[in-house]
Amino acid sequence: ALKELLEIEGYQVDTATSGLEGLAYLRAKKPTLVLLDLMMPGMGGLEFREKQLQEGLLPDVPVVLMSADGQIQKRGEQAQVTDYLRKPMDINEVLALVKRFCG
């Protein structure tokens, strides 16, 4: 649903269904923004972020952590993400955040 919303707003959106797929994507392309879910199959968002930083994969690309976890702010700080979105997400908040980073 988030992909569809952003595409309706005119953004080009690529998705990864797991942390491993996301890392492979970062090795091949340079996104403007990474929206990172805390809970993903195989490799969660925190492990993805740790490996991204260890490998030096696009450290200048903003990463926004998304989660319903009650400690998302703390987890975001631990993962050194640019920002975070609390689920359920407010559509206007999501669009404002994406616009801030993607124009």
How would you describe what is shown here?
The chain has 103 residues and is α/β, with parallel strands linked by helices. The protein has five helices and three strands; from the N terminus they run H-H-E-H-E-H-E-H. The protein has helices spanning 2-8, 19-28, 45-55, 72-79, 91-102; strands at residues 34-37, 63-67, 83-86. It has a three-stranded parallel beta sheet, covered by helices on one side. The longest helix is centred in the last third of the chain and has 12 residues, at 91-102. The radius of gyration is 13 Å and the shape is globular.
Key attributes of the depicted protein:
103 residues, alpha/beta, 3-stranded parallel beta sheet, 5 helices, 47% helix, globular
* Global morphology: globular
Strand order of the largest sheet: 1-2-3
Mean pLDDT across the residues is: 94
Helix content: 40-55%
- The value of Rg in angstroms is 13 Å
* Major beta sheet summary: 3 strands, parallel
Task: Write a brief structural summary.
By secondary structure, the protein is α/β, with parallel strands linked by helices.
Give the helices and strands, then pairings.
Blueprint: H1 2-8, H2 19-28, E1 34-37, H3 45-55, E2 63-67, H4 72-79, E3 83-86, H5 91-102
Parallel strand pairs: 1-2, 2-3
Helix pairs in contact: 2-3
